[in-house]
Amino acid sequence: MPKDQEYQPLINNPTDDGVPPPSKPAWTSHFSRTVLAGLLIVESIALAATIFALFSRVPPASYTVALDSQRVLYSPALEAVEHEVQVYHVGFASDLSPFQIPSSPALDRMWSELYNFGISRITKDEAARLPNKTHAIPGDDGHYIAELDVFHNLHCLNKIRMALDPDYYPDWRISTSNNYIPTQTNATEHVAHCVDWIRQSMMCNGDTSVIVWQWQDFQNTTMVKGNVAHTCRKFDKIQDWAKGHRLQNEYDPTVHIEDDIVVPILHNQIP
Ligand SMILES: *[C@@H]1O[C@H](CO)[C@@H](O)[C@H](O)[C@H]1NC(C)=O
Ligand SMILES: *[C@@H]1O[C@H](CO)[C@@H](O)[C@H](O)[C@H]1NC(C)=O
Ligand SMILES: *[C@@H]1O[C@H](CO)[C@@H](O)[C@H](O)[C@H]1NC(C)=O
């Protein structure tokens, strides 16, 4: 029986003396007004509890969400994007990353292996879908030059790292008074460009992974815990894409090739 019919008398006639109106089913007259009021309260509580339980129930996978509806600018490397959970190294003595070794040929090699294949060749169809126009590769018909920004970011961070150890990397010593740079016309300028590029990249990517505080028995205090889970793009997949799209010949930047690719001007909005 629907409950609005069952409880209508109390709601409609709050001041009556408990005598049901003629249209009421006869059995309701056996209930005293007090009993009906009690039932109403009990059911209201049960309903509230049910609603609360429905909304507060935590499904097992509630620590992930779908972001399918997002649109992003085209990149030929989007096909390589896969996600995974990664826990960062904290980077202090108890949890150093393999990159935290002194400047050395071994460290230079590790950095180089992150991005030394980072200039790519893409097809004309792919180039035509880019939000910015890029140039054809002389001597590689139908192919265009491209660099994924992650590799430029890594190159930039590597230069900042070198500037921080000027005794080992004298070319990257930054100083306006003593700036002898055989390979760089101005390392100060290059490093400043890199710092600001990485700032923009971090703000662009806005990592919302959550760093937490946890209780430490041995210190009787809560402490910030850096080794938390992050949603990451699988770096090795993006590396594989770049390795599969390596330039096949030396790129000659002095050759100008005209083409018919026209890209639309976007005004900050994603199409
Ligand atoms: C290098 O660039 C910095 C920053 O733009 C500038 O202040 C400095 O004068 C430049 N140094 C030389 C030697 O050109
Ligand atoms: C932490 O607090 C507990 C309870 O007060 C105490 O027994 C313990 O000695 C404290 N430990 C440290 C390292 O201060
Ligand atoms: C790249 O495209 C954006 C959006 O249309 C535009 O604002 C920007 O000036 C372009 N940059 C180059 C180098 O073409």
Automatic annotation (TrEMBL):
Highest rank taxon of the organism: Eukaryota
Entry's transmembrane regions: 35-55
| Pathway connected to this protein | Mycotoxin biosynthesis
Write out the entry's keywords from A to Z. Membrane, Transmembrane, Transmembrane helix
The record's region (Disordered) falls at 1-24
* One GO BP annotation of this record: mycotoxin biosynthetic process
Record has DNA repair as a keyword:
no
Q: Which family does it belong to?
A: Belongs to the ustYa family.
Name of the protein this chain belongs to: Tat pathway signal sequence
